[in-house]
Amino acid sequence: MAEIHLKKLAHSYSANPKFTSEYAIREMDHVWEQGGAYALLGPSGCGKSTLLNIISGLLSPSEGEVLFDGERVNDLTPSQRNIAQVFQFPVIYDSMTVFDNLAFPLRNMKVPESKVKKKVFEIAEILELQDVLHNKAKNLSADEKQKVSMGRGLVRDDVSAILFDEPLTVIDPHLKWKLRRKLKQIHEQFNITMVYVTHDQLEAATFADKIALMYDGNIVQFGTPRELFEKPNHTFVGYFIGSPGMNFIEVARCAGGVEFAGITFPVDAGIQDILDQVPTDNLKLGIRPEFVHVCAESIEGSFECDIKHIEDLGTYKIITLDLKGRTLKARIDEDQQIPEHKVYVSFPKQWLKLYVDEYLIEGDS
Ligand code: ATP
C-alpha cells in the first residue's frame, strides 16, 4: 500500500486551455496517507472520475505529478502502478466462473494456486459469494456481478491502493448499506489505502475516515465527516453536506460585528481584525438547521419568525421560516410542540459561522 501525493496536479481535456474554466482539475496539492480510507465526494461533473483515472494511470495529467510513496509514477502504466480499480458497472468475464473471475488477478501475478484458493475463499466469504463460486458469471444477478467485480479489486493484498468509482450505483438500495459495511470491514482487516468516489454524502461518511469534498475541479475541504458538518470552510461545503444544507444569510458590516435587517451579530476581536482588512462586501452568516434554536415563546436574544412551511419527516421536522424577509430552515425533534404561525429563533454563537467571499473566517478572540 502507498501514500498517494498529488503535486501541483491539473488537468484539461482541451489541448490548449485558455481559461481556468477549461480545467476539469484545477491546480491542487493533496496527500492521501498510506492505509487510509478516503472518500472523494462531490456533485456530478466536479472532476472526481478524472482525478481517479489520473491516479490509476488511465489518464495522463496535463500538469503536475502523481507520487506513490514519494516516487513519480506519471510515466508508469496502470498495471505498473499496481492499483486496483472498481468501476460503477461490473467488469467481469461472463464466460468464467465466479471463482475464476476472482482468481484472475492473482493468477495473472503468478501467485501459487494454494494461495489463490485461500484468498478467493476469504474474499468470497466476506462478500457472501461462497454459494455461487462455481456458477458462470453470466448467470448472476446484477448485484452479484458487481460483488464479483469488487472482489476482483479486493483479492490482491499487494496493491498500492484500491480505487472505487461509485461501486454501489447498480446495487439494490437495501443491499447498499451492507456492502458499505463490508468494504469498511475489508479496509480494517487489510489496511489498504482506499479512495472511494461518490456523490452520496451518506456513502462517503459511512465508508471514509476522511472526506475530500470536490467542487469545480478543486478539493475544497479535506476532513472527517464531522469536521465537514460542523465547520464547513466554504459555503459550498455548508450547502452540499447536510440535509437540508446550511442556512446562509447575507449580512453587512456594522459597529462591533455584522448585521442584517437591524439585527446585530457581534463578532470576536480576531474576526473583527480580519473583517477590517478585507475589502469585499460579500459577507454571509451560516448556521446549520440542526443548530437553529426554536422556541414557542420569546427568550432573551431570540427573534420572531413566521412559519412558512413544516415538513414532517417522521422522526424530525424541517420548518421553513421567514426571519425579517430571509428564509431560514430549522430542524426540530418530532415531539417538539410549536405554534402554528409564529416561533422564536436564536443562534448559539459557536454554531454561527462567518463567510467572506464564500470562505469561512475564524479569528482568535
Ligand atoms: P460524475 O459524478 O457525473 O461522473 P465527475 O465528478 O466524475 O462527474 P468528471 O467525469 O471527472 O466529473 O468530469 C469533470 C469535467 O470534465 C466535466 O466538466 C466533464 O464534462 C469533463 N469531461 C470528463 N470526461 C471528459 C472527456 N473525455 N472529454 C472532455 N471532457 C470531459
TrEMBL record:
Keywords: ATP-binding, Cell membrane, Membrane, Nucleotide-binding, Transport. The keyword Cell membrane applies. Residues 4-241 form the ABC transporter domain. GO terms for molecular function: ABC-type ferric iron transporter activity; ATP binding; ATP hydrolysis activity. InterPro entries: AAA+_ATPase, ABC_transporter-like_ATP-bd, ABC_transpr_FbpC, ABC_transpr_MalK/UgpC-like, Mo/tungstate-bd_C_term_dom, NA-bd_OB-fold, OB_MalK-like, P-loop_NTPase. One of its GO terms (cellular component) is ATP-binding cassette (ABC) transporter complex, substrate-binding subunit-containing. It comes from the Bacteria. Transmembrane segments: none annotated. SMART domains: AAA. This is Carbohydrate ABC transporter ATP-binding protein, CUT1 family. The lineage of its organism: Bacteria, Pseudomonadati, Pseudomonadota, Gammaproteobacteria, Oceanospirillales.
